[in-house]
Specification:
Strand content of chain B: 15-25%
Mean pLDDT of chain B: 91
Largest interface: A-B, 48 and 33 residues
Structural class of chain B: alpha/beta
Number of strands of chain B: 17
Number of helices of chain A: 12
CATH superfamily of the largest domain in chain B: Dihydrodipicolinate Reductase, domain 2
Helix content of chain B: 25-40%
Structural class of chain A: alpha/beta
Distance between the termini of chain A: 44 Å
CATH class of the largest domain in chain B: Alpha Beta
CATH topology of the largest domain in chain B: Dihydrodipicolinate Reductase, domain 2
Distance between the termini of chain B: 55 Å
Helix content of chain A: 25-40%
Strand content of chain A: 25-35%
Low-confidence stretches of chain B: none
Radius of gyration of chain A: 23 Å
CATH class of the largest domain in chain A: Alpha Beta
Number of domains of chain B: 2
Oligomer: heterodimer
């Protein structure tokens, strides 16, 4: 029984099964007889997962991503606990309409690997990249097992979602080790950090006004309300704000400042709703409240300090994985703020 | 003290808190472009806090009626979906101010309204005045802004003016307008809009040239044979546009501004940095280096003007230019113009730049094509070479924005015959996400104080200086070059083909 966790329907959705050695040739044949289809590719986008039950969800994720980002899409399902080594490959074209008569397509290659070592993953998968294009990997598995130097030394951008980590402190440690490796030169993006992008932009916009800005050093409390599974997004946001205010994160959620009072950080977890629902900064004479209702695409931003009261709405952060990854793919490369926050985050998680 | 959260904002220009006053607010531009652009800026979260828009126009109407009209227009023209939640907040920032453009009291009342907004904000705000009215009102609007003291920014703030095209109709009127602007606003606060510069593909020209090491070393007279810039329209004078167009013509309406801007971007030297003045310094040098066309002979030899006669476009019968609505039946206005220009610089010595623009052509397309010189062909002397086999780089400005590079390949088979093949890049197939509209980018830049994508005074005046000589040869000479003709739906007059044939060239078939 080769794929105990996979249904025939799941396998059929992966496309046409081809021998590993014929993947590239079969991809070329996809285009030969159909002049209405245009192949487009700007990146190699790979999803690495060790969860067979996520196969269907990942197929939908790739369809959504290729609708806006032309790429060679690679879906790598590795089943390390399978009884014997095995590898199968499937190819497909993910197409979207373009100018009425034509369709633009991204190539998808899915690999189902059993008992694959990092070296086997590297050999099989990296032999099928679209050459000269950057490799962006969404790593859904734990970083502590197969996230090996032989793999990450080929990656240009690594996307993780720390909200899925069972033990964030250990995963962050593995990530730090990888980032410090001599052969690694990848940029890391965390979807938990992306979940606060527009919220951070709204906060920054509040302090574009000099009257609000002058009260900023007086802020002594940061309160964040978050959905229960998104504590990491809240921690990251809090760590960033505290760092910007000159505070030093500590595990008791009090951030001492060299020049001024300490900042108290409070997290409130709720069972439903958007990942980040409320951010409240308070201090003597100053209050900033950014709040989001469950059914809204916008956040309400209220600023209140002497001689300055405003109420504005700004776009809320996107929520689905496809939207979050789309946000990341739309941005230029380079080291992100996130990398600089990892030490603070590790301190908070102690 | 700096905003410590600003690092999250650095990826793009940020607008500063301001009030935008649109003169001519009941016009088409406001409804189709400006309000949808501001709405989309808001939808992206880029509109500054406590933002206000004031529509200044002559017709009597209330804020509510104005907002309702704009809502209808926004639903139709907005790039992003119109959502009630955003519109209800955004629309509260929109106000209407009724006044004649020449009534100083109306400007004083506008000043009181802006002051009232400042009181509501609890602080003074920056002010952006957008001249979207008919051009004959630009000067009185500027004079009255000054008379009402609105040109002076509040302490520590700025007051800027955005001028829509056309910026003058010749050098004299452009200078007059520039003087009027200069009497009211400093040059650094003056933003002359050319929406072509807000297009992604126009902005990409500099990236293509200066960020890719394969192009810039070949971007000169040693490797480039000639360059063509085409702006074709498949429409005529529909919707009453003949009234304006017949007073302007293709040369003034398109070449002096949009096409000269594209020419500048293609021919400019690398700027020392990407500051507004560094880029514009290099662009203006191109216009100043254009070999002058003085007198009817020089103009006749290098410029072809034409009007379309009856014909058909896409199978639909079209009238001739002189039969169009609101066009003078004896009009001497060109609906098509083709130019052969030379940029007299070290880089471009001897390279012809061909520009053509016209109405009622077979399709709508704006593009730049760079035609490279053929290699010596020595190794392939006996092989069969097809015509027009030079390497060509095509930059498509609109529609179907993108680039294509034509190269030669060996055709499969025993014989050594070559075939051109095209490597094609399309924005919309590679980047599924829609680009911001040109007006979104330009409005945001004006609010953020970045004038890179706006024309500077010397650019505008030098362009008019060049254009005026052609106009003089056409309209003030005793022996004007002829007005040629082409059937609607064709690619222009045969004389334009002959213009290129003199140099052994031909127009690219779009």
């Amino acid at each position: 029984m080769p794929f105990p966790a996979l249904s025939e329907n799941d396998l059929a959705r992966l496309g046409m099964e081809v021998p590993l050695a014929r993947v590239d040739k079969s991809l070329a044949e996809l285009w030969e007889n159909d002049s209405a289809k245009t192949r487009a590719s700007l990146i190699n986008f790979a999803i690495y997962t060790e969860s067979a039950s996520d196969l269907s969800r990942n197929m939908e994720l790739l369809e959504a991503i290729t609708a806006e980002h032309a790429c060679r899409a690679l879906l790598i399902l590795n089943l390390p606990d399978a009884p014997a080594p095995n590898a199968r490959a499937f190819i497909n074209a993910l197409c979207r309409p373009y100018q009425g008569q034509q369709v633009v397509c991204s190539e998808q290659v899915a690999f189902i690997l059993e008992q694959a070592t990092p070296q086997a993953v590297q050999n099989i998968v990296f032999a099928h990249l679209d050459s000269d294009l950057p490799l962006i990997v969404l790593w859904q598995g734990t970083l502590t097992r197969n996230f090996d130097e032989r793999l990450y030394s080929h990656i240009d951008t690594l996307i993780v979602d720390s909200s899925l980590w069972q033990n964030p402190a250990i995963e962050l440690s593995a990530l730090t080790t990888a980032l410090e490796s001599e052969t690694a030169d990848f940029d890391v993006r965390d979807l938990s950090w992306t979940r606060s992008h527009f919220l951070r932009t709204s906060l920054a916009t509040c302090f574009q006004d000099a009257r609000a800005l002058e009260h900023l050093p007086a802020i002594t409390q940061i309160e964040i309300t978050h959905a229960s599974e998104h504590r990491m997004a809240a921690l990251l946001l809090g760590a960033w704000i505290a760092q910007r205010l000159g505070g030093t994160p500590s595990s008791n959620l009090t951030f001492p400042r060299a020049n001024g009072p300490s900042i108290q950080f409070t997290l409130t977890s709720v069972s439903t709703g958007p990942s980040l629902q409320k951010l409240h900064l308070t201090g003597p004479n100053v209050q900033i409240q950014i709040s989001r209702h469950s059914d809204s695409r916008f956040v309400q931003v209220c600023t209140s300090c002497p001689n300055h009261k405003t109420q504005e709405i700004y776009p809320a952060d996107v929520e689905t994985d496809a939207e979050l990854i789309g946000e990341q793919l739309s941005r230029a490369g380079g080291r992100t703020l996130y990398s600089s926050l990892i030490p603070q985050l590790r301190e908070l998680l102690k | 003290m700096e905003n410590p959260f600003q690092e999250t904002l650095i990826q793009k220009n940020r607008a500063e808190p301001c009030s935008v006053v649109i003169f001519g607010a009941t016009g088409d531009l406001t409804h189709r472009k400006l309000i949808p652009a501001l709405y989309n800026i808001a939808a992206c979260g880029d509109l500054p806090p406590q933002f206000k828009v004031v529509g200044f126009a002559r017709r009597e109407k209330s804020d509510d009626v104005f907002r309702s009209e704009l809502e209808t227009a926004n639903k139709k023209h907005s790039r992003q979906a119109h959502t009630q939640e955003l519109w209800s907040g955004f629309s509260q920032s929109i106000h209407y101010h009724q006044s004649e453009f020449q009534d100083v009291e109306g400007y004083k009342a506008l000043g009181r309204l802006l002051d009232q907004f400042d009181v509501e904000r609890g602080t003074t705000a920056n002010r952006l005045f957008y001249l979207a009215s008919a051009p004959e009102f630009f000067k009185p609007i500027l004079e009255h802004l000054k008379a009402a003291g609105l040109h002076v920014p509040p302490q520590g703030k700025w007051a800027r003016v955005v001028c829509e095209k056309p910026f003058g109709k010749d050098l004299a009127t452009a200078r007059g307008l520039n003087e009027a602007v200069a009497n009211t606003f400093a040059e650094k606060d003056t933003y002359r809009i050319d929406h072509y510069l807000g297009k992604e593909t126009a902005q990409n020209i500099m990236v293509l040239r200066f960020a890719n090491s394969i192009f810039e070393p070949n971007w000169n007279s040693r490797y480039i044979d000639h360059i063509q810039i085409t702006c074709a329209e498949n429409l005529g004078m529909e919707g009453g546009r003949g009234g304006y167009y017949d007073t302007a013509g293709a040369l003034r309406d398109m070449v002096q501004n949009h096409l000269f801007q594209l020419l500048s971007l293609v021919a400019m030297e690398p700027p020392t940095d990407l500051s507004a003045d560094a880029v514009r310094d290099e662009k203006v040098k191109v216009i100043r280096s254009l070999r002058p066309l003085i007198g009817p002979n020089a103009v006749g030899q290098n410029v072809i003007r034409a009007q379309y006669t009856t014909g058909s476009v896409d199978g639909v019968a079209r009238p001739g230019y002189r039969q169009e609505d609101r066009v003078n039946p004896e009009s001497q206005t060109e609906a098509y113009v083709a130019l052969r220009l030379f940029v007299d610089t070290w880089r471009w010595q001897g390279v012809p730049f061909y520009i053509r623009v016209g109405k009622q052509l077979p399709k709508k397309a704006t593009e730049i094509s760079v035609h490279f010189k053929r290699p010596p062909q020595v190794p392939f002397a006996t092989s069969k070479l097809i015509d027009n086999s030079e390497n060509t780089l095509v930059i498509r400005i609109q529609p179907d924005e993108g680039m294509a590079l034509r190269i030669l390949c060996k055709q499969p088979g025993q014989a050594l015959s070559m075939q051109p093949v095209k490597m094609d890049f399309r924005y919309s197939s590679s980047f599924g996400k829609a680009s911001p509209e040109a007006y979104e980018r330009l409005l945001l830049d004006a609010m953020a104080g970045d004038a890179t994508l706006f024309a500077r005074r010397d650019e505008v005046e030098n362009a008019w200086k060049f254009i005026d000589e052609i106009q003089a040869a056409w309209h003030k000479s005793d022996t004007p070059p002829p007005m040629c003709e082409y059937p609607a739906g064709s690619w222009g007059p045969k004389e334009a083909d002959q213009l290129l044939a003199q140099n052994g060239h031909e127009w690219r078939l779009l």
